[in-house]
Specification:
Number of strands: 0
Strand content: under 5%
Order of helices and strands: HHHHHH
CATH architecture: Orthogonal Bundle
Number of helices: 6
Oligomer: single chain
Shape: globular
Structural class: mainly alpha
Radius of gyration: 12 Å
Distance between the termini: 22 Å
CATH topology: 434 Repressor (Amino-terminal Domain)
Largest sheet: none
Helix content: over 70%
Length: 80
């Protein structure tokens, strides 16, 4: 169960990074919009930091995307 959860967390992180890069946004830009440091944001994309549902909604809003697109683990696998 824990391993499956880790895979899903990593998939969300990959989806966030892919969407950010597609929009040509920097980590610094997203960090500033979220009110956190670039280092803290980097840890989100690496899957080291657990993010709240509220934070996930904030990221989806900044990336102008649907929350479901970020949490779709199949999309992350296809991009890999």
């Amino acid at each position: 169960m824990k391993k499956m959860l880790n895979i899903r967390v990593k998939a969300v992180a990959v989806n966030i990074r892919n969407k950010r890069e597609k929009l040509n946004y920097t980590q610094e830009y997203l960090a500033a919009k979220l009110g956190i440091s670039q280092n803290a944001y980097s840890k989100i994309e690496l899957g080291y930091t657990k993010i709240t549902v509220e934070r996930l909604f904030q990221i989806a809003d900044i990336l102008e995307t649907d929350l479901m697109e970020l949490i779709n683990s199949e999309k992350a696998e296809a991009a890999a």
